Automatic annotation (TrEMBL):
The keyword Flavoprotein applies. Signal peptide: none annotated. Pfam families: Pyr_redox_2 (PF07992). InterPro entries: FAD/NAD-bd_sf, FAD/NAD-binding_dom, Ferredoxin-NADP_redctase_2. Keywords: Flavoprotein, Oxidoreductase. This is FAD-dependent oxidoreductase. One of its GO terms (molecular function) is oxidoreductase activity. It comes from Candidatus Dojkabacteria bacterium. Gene3D superfamilies: FAD/NAD(P)-binding domain. Residues 9-297 form the FAD/NAD(P)-binding domain. It comes from the Bacteria.
Length: 313
């Protein structure tokens, strides 16, 4: 825990995933004192079984990648506190941050890197099979299912895009959708319907996940091919995600209709002195990837450097 007595940071970074750690790395290189505050140092990428689409790494465990980010940020001088920020107040031209642990921090500027939360099916064993057949990101994990049987849960663009990509890698792809017609862009709907190795199962939900050390089958709410079970190697849950925007909403930062933080090209928000980066923003075409989060964090730190320098001239 850093010494917070009588110390004011140039930048307080709320959230400790790739966006926050990248922001810390760049802030330190600009000689801006900074602290990263988050419940999980390394962020949710630490839960990823493998990451194979981050430049410079052919294939690496998510925990290793996040820890490399953390070590680099720490090496350059960033400070860290593993706790939850619950309130942000403006006091004497500074931001006062209060945490669940009843600690307080002062900072000249803030970067919100709050991330997002994937919608889950809410089934028993769902967390157990994460990284053992269950995935929430086809872009991240598709390559681990080459020539295997997989299923995608969902019926909107996220599901059809994932199914289309998986069809070029897996031997068989099933789309399981509770509705009677796929939703979203017609180009993706037509694409999955034209693929010979994609089968669509309508008016059906997944009611249980089964297997031993890894996922082996799913139980369906309706019978398919005279069976209530579907034997698969992987299940991609593509039923959307929600930005973690409660704190942003509390302080009055502008959000879009889907509750993403609205940012300008320099990652600044609607409130002076507050920037945002990563999955919680409407930036990067809402393409939630490690590489886009890291780039947005870097941009935010660069923008704050220019902001502080202008204030001191």
């Amino acid at each position: 825990m850093p010494d917070k007595i009588n110390k004011t940071y140039d930048v307080a970074i709320i959230g400790s995933g790739p966006a926050g750690l990248s922001a810390s790395i760049y802030a330190s290189r600009y000689r801006l004192s900074n602290i990263v505050i988050g419940e999980m140092l390394g962020g949710s990428i630490s839960d990823a079984h493998r990451v194979c689409n981050y430049p410079g790494f052919i294939d690496t465990p998510g925990i290793d990648l996040s820890q490399n980010f953390l070590k680099q940020a720490e090496h350059l001088g960033g400070e860290f506190s593993q706790e939850l920020v619950t309130k942000i107040l403006k006091k004497d031209n500074l931001f006062l941050l209060e945490t669940e642990s009843q600690n307080t921090y002062y900072s000249k500027t803030i970067i919100l890197t709050l991330g997002s939360s994937r919608n889950k099916l809410g089934l028993p064993n769902e967390d157990f099979f994460l990284g053992k057949g269950v995935s929430y990101c086809a872009t991240c994990d598709a390559m681990f299912f080459r020539e295997k049987r997989v299923a995608v849960v969902g019926g909107s663009n996220a599901a059809t895009m994932s199914a289309s990509m998986l069809s070029d890698i897996a031997s068989e792809v099933y789309i399981i959708y509770r509705g009677t017609e796929l939703r979203g862009d017609q180009v993706w709907i037509e694409d999955v319907k034209e693929k010979s190795n994609i089968k669509i199962i309508y008016s059906t939900t997944v009611v249980s996940l089964e297997g031993g050390s890894k996922l082996e089958r799913i139980k369906l709410s309706n019978r398919y091919n005279n069976s209530e079970y579907l034997e698969i190697d992987g299940l991609f849950i593509e039923i959307g995600s929600v930005p973690n925007a409660d704190l942003a909403q509390q302080i009055g930062v502008k959000l879009d209709r889907e509750n993403y933080i609205v940012v300008s090209e320099d990652q600044s928000t609607s409130l002076e002195g507050i920037w945002a980066a990563g999955d919680c923003t409407n930036s990067s075409n809402k393409f939630s990837q490690v590489v886009t989060a890291a780039s947005e964090g870097a941009i935010a730190a660069n923008s704050i450097f220019a902001f502080i320098k202008k204030k001191t001239v």
